[in-house]
Amino acid sequence: MSAGGSGDRHPVLAGVGGWLPSRVVTNDDLAAHLDTSDAWIRSRTGIGSRRFAEPGVSTGDLAVAAGALALKSSGEAQADAVVLATATPDHPLPGTAPQVAERLGLIGAAAFDVAAVCAGFVYGLATAGGLIAAGTARRVLLIGAETFTSIVNPRDRSTAVIFADGAGAVVLRAGRPDEPGALGPTDLGSDGGNHELIMVPGGGSRQRSSGADPGPEDHFFHMAGRDVYRHAVERLTSSSRAALAHAGWQVTDVDRFVPHQANAKISAAVADRLGLDADRVLSNIAEVGNTSAASIPLLLAQAGADGRLQPGHRVLLAAFGGGLTWGASTLVWPDITALTV
Fold this sequence. Notes:
Blueprint: E1 10-19, E2 23-26, H1 27-31, H2 38-45, E3 49-52, H3 59-74, E4 81-85, H4 97-103, E5 110-114, H5 120-133, E6 139-147, H6 157-160, E7 165-175, E8 187-190, E9 198-199, H7 205-209, E10 222-223, H8 225-247, E11 256-259, H9 264-274, H10 285-288, H11 295-306, E12 314-321, E13 325-332, E14 339-340
Parallel strand pairs: 1-14, 4-5, 4-6, 11-12
Antiparallel strand pairs: 1-7, 2-3, 6-7, 8-13, 9-10, 12-13
Subunit structure: Homodimer.
Enzyme class: transferase
GO biological process, one term: fatty acid biosynthetic process
């Protein structure tokens, strides 16, 4: 799938921002009420700590904070459209993006949510790029934001130790396909036949229309870890190869690989299959956990701010999430000032 655009209608990265809640939750904190330990969590996930939003803080709140940083990073406070990738919207309806746009002063901008769980940001890249290519927007604010702790069962060791809260955002502007920051072709895919591997069973029309009351655990997030691992490694690898082929890149051309921060073992397995050395794989999962749709833009913001991403670096992005959904894309990192809090 093309990123779209020719002439001056190609999506180009112009700004990036990342926001994390201030509350740090360590593995030892979780071990105080779960049958687990710091060693167990690190050995299986690579996570040492994560951030939790304070009570009363919503996904929209985090999205506004990250979006404001991305707009500041871009040097302009305006955007024609706001796309919010999230699996944890403030309400079942309406979408959260219009409220985020209003709070950022983007009155009248097109605004909508994208629901592809952990692959949401990559789906959002394709969507935002399409708005620019079609001439619908000249500048798009794309945000990945999650308060995943609001849907995770705090008593479920298999998920409670992995997922966390945070937000990251980018600004895409209309530009040329040959300039730094230009988004490469995006590969996307899905497999609805395996939707039950990652899901929240209750609360939707399927459960409500059945006439049956939801069970006590049905409003919580469920994940079949072993099966998800296998699908994630296979799909991330194949999608990454497709995105590289569409861009005309070889694996040796990649300076930095930015995978969705699902699990350190998944990232390592995909890098190994692709033939990427560990020093080219960016990660922040040890400090922030799995922030779902927020993980890639948050990692881009942090790596841009601390120097792990430098102008001219050729970057491969890839994500896998519920649906099942997956996607990958490429870009050459531009000379921008990344902002994080």
